[in-house]
Please model this.
Amino acid sequence: MEGELNALAGSARLPRRARMRFAIASLRRTVDLLRTLTEADLRFRYGRGSGRFLRWLLEPFALVGVYLLFVTFLLNRPGYAPGLSLACAVVPFQFVILTVANALEAINVRRPILLNMRFDRKLIPLSSTLTEASAFSASFLLIPVMMAAYHVAPTAAIGWLPLVLVVNVYLAGASAYAASLLGLWLVELKPFLMSFVRMLFFLGPGLVPLSEASARSREILQFNPLSGMFEAYRSIFLEGHAPAPWELLYPLGIASLILLVFVPLYSAEQRQFAKVL
Model:
């Protein structure tokens, strides 16, 4: 790390074109390292055999797809497309909670390389986020399956999807930085931390839309950053209109606050990882 800082300081005296080449080379090294960490995570989860793609595709259906199909075809729940409404909450929530679960163990799992190699440790939470983003891309298929089951056609509101996905990834990534440190500091409390994240699903409009809650309940539930995410997905896929501004801005604000607090803490603490492990 010290060598890279010296090289960066020296690069300030280089010509502009040379500085640009240096910056591109540095970015390429960062991307390569992040890809390597993520690929190692994915190989650990899905294995190396030819069946790993099938496992990646079917795992989300094994986790929550069966329940969604049960709600859709066997239960007579009231409301408009209840299975699709539930999927719009379960899918983004799975991304966040699996990222937190991954990040809680990320530093400990990488103990061998932390003790024997020098690399940018700030990439570890990002690697956890990218790993779960891969799984999320498979679980996301549950939403079009539910839309087809309820004969809900996509609308022009689908154009908001990239922005909603960015907010979802941003919130998961911010949570990863917090979870990485809390998993290191509070080893005995990891089950409690996971339970707290699960509680956020039920303390938000996870099972029923926000519109079906009482006025007083809506005011309280909106403090949960996941509420905005759930409602943003419902706006796009279920209701066919653009998300309300608060549905995106509030999760963005909470995620930014988490990063503002935990990234400096992570940067300071990473020097002690080898000693703590």
